[in-house]
Amino acid sequence: MKSYTYIFAGAGLSSLMTVYEMIQSGFFSEQKMLLIDSDSKKTNDRTWSFWENQVDTFDDVLLKKYDSAFFKSNQFSRKLALEPYQYKTVRGLDFYKKVFDFIHQQPNIEFVEARISNFSETKTGVEIHTNAGVFQGEKLFNSIYNPSLVASQTKFPLVQQHFIGWFIKSKEAVFTPETATFMDFSVQQKSNTRFMYVLPTSESEALIEYTLFSPTLLAKQEYETEIVNYIQNLGISDYEITEKEQGNIPMTCYPFWKHNTKNILNIGSAGGWTKASTGYTFKNTTKKSKEVVRFLQNHADFRKFHKKNKFWFYDLLLIDILFHQNEIGSSIFSSMFKTAKASLIFKFLDEETTFWEDLQVIWQCPKMPFLQALWKRIF
To answer: Containing domain of residue 114, as a range?
Structure first.
């Protein structure tokens, strides 16, 4: 039986990003690695967006980048100047191709297209069972999300970021291609936190996405009806749908890291790498994958990898509010973006602010819901 140093269960964003960083480091060229996934990653299954204040490794495969963004609600509309940040968008297929082209140049890395049935830690490492056979390794990176872990407890609530998006091509030139619509809360909230998200690629082409932060999902038709209504309100009467996407991202502060073992590290959504308060994954995964590479060069026990910080607690309070009072999400985000600088908010959400800067952002939000959530958490 062939054995590997590192095995990756799943070949999504977190696994590919971690492998990419491992290759770039030059530290693991002699280590045998294996990626296992039932999907060969040759279709565009998602779109990632993120903000950044520097040139990045993946700038050459960006679909689009924006220097400004609209934030809208029923009370106001504001065009946000993003500098020194840019808001960037990359298609899943373009990301997969870039990383796999890089991986295929590495003689020490293999990819197996197979369905994983289970995995476990053994006396000597790890063992993964698939429909293509059993694989053994020293360390396992697991990115297969287990929803039952969150569902089986109540201490850490789950809010889901769920959405359906349409890429459309319109006969009418209605979009501003250099400006994204970050959040448009002018749509009916229906006792939830609901908004439209628009990423234009030209004056007549855009991704229009109906998104909710809420505990429960909707019927497919409800998302699509809202998209149709929004398109009509934009003044578009003639258009074609060129592509569709659908997703559901867990937003929770559940301590997934407690399920790490000496030789198994949970990564991606399975490891709590999704930013709980926003559902953003790409930038957080970039940071975490770099942390993993630094960790591996000095440590061997994955139980020591995770460190909890103040931002985890901030996120926990927001998730508590969105879970118990989902209808006030619009007012929270609107108060945050109404007057604060977008650059400060982005820095805060990137978990790079000082405590004084934290207070500047937090002070923009409605006070009572957060005080009530804090009181409940303490007592």
So the answer is: 3-46+91-152+252-304
Whether residue 321 sits in one domain with residue 294: no
Both 300 and 331 in one domain: the answer is no
Three-state secondary structure of the chain: CCEEEEEEECCCHHHHHHHHHHHHHCCCCCCCEEEEECCCCCCCCCEEEEEECCCCCCHHHEEEEECEEEEECCCCEEEEECCCCEEEEEEHHHHHHHHHHHHCCCCCEEEEECCEEEEEECCCCEEEEECCEEEEEEEEEECCCCCHHHHCCCCCCCEEEEEEEEEEEECCCCCCCCEEEEEECCCCCCCCEEEEEEEECCCCEEEEEEEEEECCCCCHHHHHHHHHHHHHHCCCCCEEEEEEEEEEEEECCCCHHHHCCCCEEECHHHHCCCCCCCCCCHHHHHHHHHHHHHHHCCCCCHHHCCCCCHHHHHHHHHHHHHHHCHHHHHHHHHHHHHHCCHHHHHHHHCCCCCHHHHHHHHCCCCHHHHHHHHHHHHC
Residues 120 and 262 reside in one and the same domain: yes
pLDDT in tens, the chain (379 residues): 789 999 999 999 999 999 999 999 999 999 999 999 999 999 999 999 999 998 888 999 999 999 999 999 999 999 999 999 999 999 999 999 999 999 999 999 999 999 999 999 999 999 999 999 999 999 999 999 999 999 999 999 999 999 999 999 999 999 999 999 999 999 999 999 999 999 999 999 999 999 999 999 999 999 999 999 999 999 999 999 999 999 999 999 999 999 999 999 999 999 999 999 999 999 999 999 999 999 999 999 999 998 889 999 999 999 999 999 999 999 999 999 999 899 999 999 999 999 999 999 999 999 999 999 999 998 8
Question: Are 221 and 200 in a shared domain?
Answer: yes
